[in-house]
Amino acid sequence: MCGRAVASLAGMAYDTELADRIRFLIGTGPGVTEKKMFGCLAFLVGGNMAISASGQGGALVRVDPADTGALTAAANATPAVMGGRTMRGWLRVSSEELETDEQLTEWVNRAVAYTRSLPPKR
């Protein structure tokens, strides 16, 4: 879900600086884990992916599907498309939208808050 395709992983490493910034903001609270997958570094809360440093640049952010329209209108974010289909509740947020700590904090907080509202995975 994070990179273009498994075949292109060699050239598509996630932004380690962005991953470090997300790690700092998301913290190490209960149920918070990290997982390398598909060319990205995903941060999970309760076993559900919340946000990742994407292999395509920027971040993949989980949001309330009802907020997608407002968020894409107000920010440099687009609905995430995987395998040709739009993924409800997922946005691709450009690197430009994550440059400042304030910007990144807003996206991390939004992703974590929504993900915490979901039932934990077993």
Overall structural class, as computed from helix and strand content, comes to: alpha+beta
- Specify the helix fraction band: 25-40%
Overall shape: globular
Q: What is the CATH topology assignment?
A: Aspartate Aminotransferase, domain 1
**Uncertain ranges:** 3-11
Name of the CATH class: Alpha Beta
CATH architecture: Alpha-Beta Complex
Order of helices and strands: HEEEEHEEH
Q: Quote the distance from N terminus to C terminus.
A: 20 Å
- The total tally of domains equals 1
Strand percentage lies at 25-35%
User: pLDDT average, as an integer?
Assistant: 89
Strand order of the largest sheet: 1-2-3-4-6-5
DSSP summary: helix tally: 3
Task: Give me the Rg, rounded.
Answer: 13 Å
What does this structure look like?
The chain is an alpha+beta fold and 122 residues long. It has a single domain (10-116), classed as Aspartate Aminotransferase, domain 1. Helices cover 28% and strands 30% of the residues. It has three helices and six strands, in the order αββββαββα. It has helices at residues 16-26, 68-74, 101-116; strands at 32-37, 40-45, 48-53, 59-62, 77-82, 85-93. A six-stranded antiparallel β-sheet has the order 1-2-3-4-6-5. The protein is globular, with a radius of gyration of 13 Å. It starts with 15 loop residues before the first helix and ends in a 6-residue tail after the last helix.
